[in-house]
Amino acid sequence: MSQPALAETRLASSPSFSSDKITNISTFILKLRARPKQQQASMSSKQLLITSGAGIGVLSALYIYGRTVGFKSTHEIVSETPLPASTTREAAIALLHDHTTFQNLQPLVIDNKIIPPPPSTSYLVTESTSLSSSSNGTPVEYRQVTISVPMGPFSSTVISRSATIDTEDGVIVFFQAPMGMYGKNQFRVVKDGQGKGLVLREEAKLTGYSVLMPFVLGTEEKNHGEQRRKVGRELKRRAEAAGGK
Hints:
Blueprint: E1 7-13, H1 20-33, H2 37-41, H3 45-69, E2 72-82, H4 89-97, H5 99-104, E3 109-114, H6 123-133, E4 141-151, E5 154-167, E6 170-177, E7 181-191, E8 198-209, H7 213-241
Organism: Phialocephala subalpina
Region (Disordered): 222-245
InterPro entries: DUF7053
């Protein structure tokens, strides 16, 4: 049985603000991260340091500029990744409800731990408790997740906090990250368009300063795309280990 094709739809809405120069600067950071390793190897230590420092410096400058002009935008992204034919709906949802394993499948994660609830007025608490109350008091789990974001040959450590709530078909994660970024990711196990197989559907809503969004969306797409694919590989491994090929 052939796997359903990967389908990805992206919906984005932004304020009436556009700057080719700012977009080009953000794109520079993405190109820096994608620099081939063999090209990095040919650079001197001084060149590597300057190049990586430039990427981090530009990112900081964009954040300061974003705070100054005050323009924010919200982007909604819907992505679907096919799950192996051997996967059952129950097994897939159980993996999503295993928050530690699920979060650690993100390739950029280097630390992931449970934390006490943040202040009651914080975005994470207000959003998650509101959802929990409307879902018959479903428990909320708060976490601190550290990721290592590539910046050319080096990396920058980013620490974010999240609130996770289980749902009948998956999980919802509210998050707050540095530089004014926050949002919500909902992961659901649903049937594919033909109703024959299962897909892992991610519905993401991200809000932040407009000038940072090209970088943020690029990182989100790559990191979470690989996370969804690793979910499929882990489910296949578990099914094979249980003899359910």
